[in-house]
Amino acid sequence: MLFNTYWLLFLSLLTFVQQLQGKEPIKQAHWDVKEVRVLQEYYEKINNNNFTLVKYYTNWCSHCKKLKPIFNAMSKNYTTLNIDDILPNTFFNKTFNDLPNFFEEKTVNIDYVSIECEIFGSFEICKRWPGYPVVELVPPKTETNIHIKSSNDILENDDDNADEDMPMWLRVFTKIDKMFSSLFSGSSDLDDLSFTERSLEFKGSRTEPNLKNFIKDGIVSDYERLLIDYLINNSETGNNDSELVTFYNDWISNIGNKFIAVNKIMNILKADLELKELDDDVKRDLLFQKRILSTLIDIEEQKRAIEIDEL
Ligand SMILES: *[C@@H]1O[C@H](CO)[C@@H](O)[C@H](O)[C@H]1NC(C)=O
Ligand SMILES: *[C@@H]1O[C@H](CO)[C@@H](O)[C@H](O)[C@H]1NC(C)=O
Ligand SMILES: *[C@@H]1O[C@H](CO)[C@@H](O)[C@H](O)[C@H]1NC(C)=O
Ligand SMILES: *[C@@H]1O[C@H](CO)[C@@H](O)[C@H](O)[C@H]1NC(C)=O
Ligand SMILES: *[C@@H]1O[C@H](CO)[C@@H](O)[C@H](O)[C@H]1NC(C)=O
To answer: Taking CB atoms and a 6 Å cutoff, what residues make up the pocket around ligand 4?
Structure first.
């Protein structure tokens, strides 16, 4: 009798342990994508200290279905990156050992967020895309003093983004919907697109290696955004106590005409497209220089516009 009781106890313990073991792997395989249900969750995610990879999707689109397992897997195994492995140290064709640090830690975290645009279709965050899916990287919320030109044009474009999956009725519906919401604009205070000054849209075919490179390039691009702000700011305030600022000042004073300089850079890059001669680091640096010059040209145009206004 006693033996039987122990035996039963043992058996039920065994099934309990087996159940635990059976459940454990399922739990581990679960992904870490935050499915947005309320718009506020979206803004909380993109405006914190982590980088956020956002997937905008609809349930009927076939490219969205292909992207889903890749996105889910990345949310499990591509969440923390060491910035020393990513950030360049060559700028203006010179290598620097001591560069300003704009990130709080030596690592950056990537959060994964997905947003179903059938639910949020009437909000700007979804309305701005011509088709789905879209993948966008939103860097942590850090403001710059000046508006830095985006580096979106750096990334190559193959036309995989078309909304060929969107049924005709929905396209018509979306157009009507847009027309109506423009009549009653200002759908919500939360519907604020100011983060797009720092965000980047993924272009190209959405494979795991491509998406991983996109994240790395996006981190570099965000670092460059903050660096350009820092350089222009310190150059204007006369604070040239870092080697990089001094070098920047020399570089800019040797430029002469900024329009001609941008054209020169574009010609080098164009020749590269045909010859494939420049290595990636040189290319990146040239695009960085172009981004500074475009930003400065922008600033000068704005000043001129204000002067004309005042006349
Ligand atoms: C991440 O997950 C994907 C899909 O399961 C797999 O193909 C890839 O090898 C994984 N990468 C790493 C670094 O574990
Ligand atoms: C970078 O500098 C080297 C010499 O230090 C020079 O040969 C090369 O042409 C430069 N490259 C660019 C793109 O300016
Ligand atoms: C940022 O990412 C880390 C690591 O994934 C996570 O622990 C942390 O909660 C995230 N921060 C926020 C504000 O979500
Ligand atoms: C830019 O300059 C202002 C002072 O003019 C300073 O308060 C600010 O911290 C500077 N920003 C950066 C990014 O260096
Ligand atoms: C910094 O700039 C000032 C003028 O603004 C100049 O006199 C000084 O030599 C510069 N210092 C360095 C290290 O370039």
So the answer is: 145, 229-230, 233-234, 237
Mean pLDDT along residues 103-118: 93
Question: Which value, to the nearest 10 degrees, does the dihedral of the CA atoms of residues 257, 262, 267, 270 take?
Answer: 180
Residue range 122-141, pLDDT digits in tens: 898 999 999 999 999 999 99
On the question of pLDDT at 202 being above 90, the answer is yes
The atom number, within ligand 2, closest to the CA of 278 reads 13
Please report the pLDDT score of residue 78 as a whole number.
96
Higher-confidence position of 231 and 187? 231
Q: What is the mean pLDDT of residues 85-111?
A: 92
Q: Is the peptide bond before 133 cis (omega within 30 degrees of 0)?
A: yes
Most informative mutation of 99, 101, 143, 145 for ligand 4 (most atoms within 8 A of CB): 145
C-beta of 241 in contact with ligand 5 (< 6 A): no
* Residue 109 dihedral angles phi and psi, to the nearest 5°: -105, 145
How far apart, in whole angstroms, are the C-alpha atoms of residue 297 and residue 263? 13
pLDDT given at position 224:
95
Q: Which residue has the tokens 């065994």?
A: 14
Q: Which of 228, 217, 196, 226 is nearest to 298 (CA)?
A: 228
267 vs 124: CA distance, rounded Å: 37
Cα–Cα distance for residue pair 66/121, rounded to 1 Å: 21
Q: Which of 231, 234, 236, 240 should be mutated for ligand 5, with most atoms under 8 A from CB?
A: 240
Which atom of ligand 3 approaches the CA of 109 most closely?
2
Cα pseudo-dihedral 67, 70, 71, 76, rounded to 10: 170
Does ligand 1 lie within 6 Å of residue 9's CB atom? no
Residues 246-264 pLDDT 10s: 999 999 999 989 999 999 9
Whether pLDDT at 2 is above 90: no
Ligand 1 contacts CB of residue 209 (under 6 A): no
